[in-house]
Amino acid sequence: MVAILTSQAQKKDPMAGKREFRDKMVAEKLKLSEEQKQKARKLNEDYRKELTELRKKDDLVVKEWRSRMMELNKKHREDMRGLLTNQQKEQMEKMKMERKKIGEIDNNARMEKMKLHLDLNDKQMEEMKKQRIEMTEKMKTIRENQTMDMMKKREEMKVLLQQRKDDMRSILTEEQRKKMQEMRKATPRKRKVLS
Each residue of 120-142: b (16+ CB within 10 Å) or e? Predict the structure, then answer.
């Protein structure tokens, strides 16, 4: 019976299974108490209800809708963080650092793959690595800027991403740019939803 309900819930919401798995893993790693788990479930349910209600509002301007969405996300993160003990917050930071290290490993692997596929020389690789480091620092500065609202941060990020594309074009030869376009067409990109 429970499996059927879970299966039906997942058909309605394809992310439900992934969320359950992620939440379970985080709860285990942080060693959440039963009380914390119940409070977290309640916060998540309330958050999803508020999201659903916000999505139903068609009388909002896109900018206002995004602003409310970001406020809702920020409040949810703060509420969830408020459930944790200091020790759990430290563990959460460790987990965040681990994910960051894994991300760096993935980035380096992508760079090596790109070097092979596009036949990049050492000078091009150095320029691309330098560009990536500079871009990462600029993005970090934008994210940590408390004076900017989320909409302004997004706009700044878009400008940086366009700048990165332009810089990449200046590093690659015409032939390498064509190869890169072919590679992108051959492997569809996963769409990231910004929150």
Answer: beeebeebbeebbeeeeebbeeb
Structural domain count, the chain: 3
Same domain, 73 and 22: yes
Listing DSSP states for the chain in one string gives -HHHHHHHHHHH-TTHHHHHHHHHHHHHHHT--HHHHHHHHHHHHHHHHHHHHHHH--SS-HHHHHHHHHHHHHHHHHHHHHTS-HHHHHHHHHHHHHHHHHHHHHHHHHHHHHHHHHT--HHHHHHHHHHHHHHHHHHHHHHH-TTS-HHHHHHHHHHHHHHHHHHHHHHS-HHHHHHHHHHHHHSPPPPPPP-
Residue at 190 is within a domain:
no
Quote the pTM value: 0.61
CB 9, CB 2: distance < 8 Å: no
Range of the domain at 114: 93-119
pLDDT digits (tens, 9 = 90+) for 54-103: 888 888 888 788 888 888 989 999 999 998 999 999 999 999 999 989 99
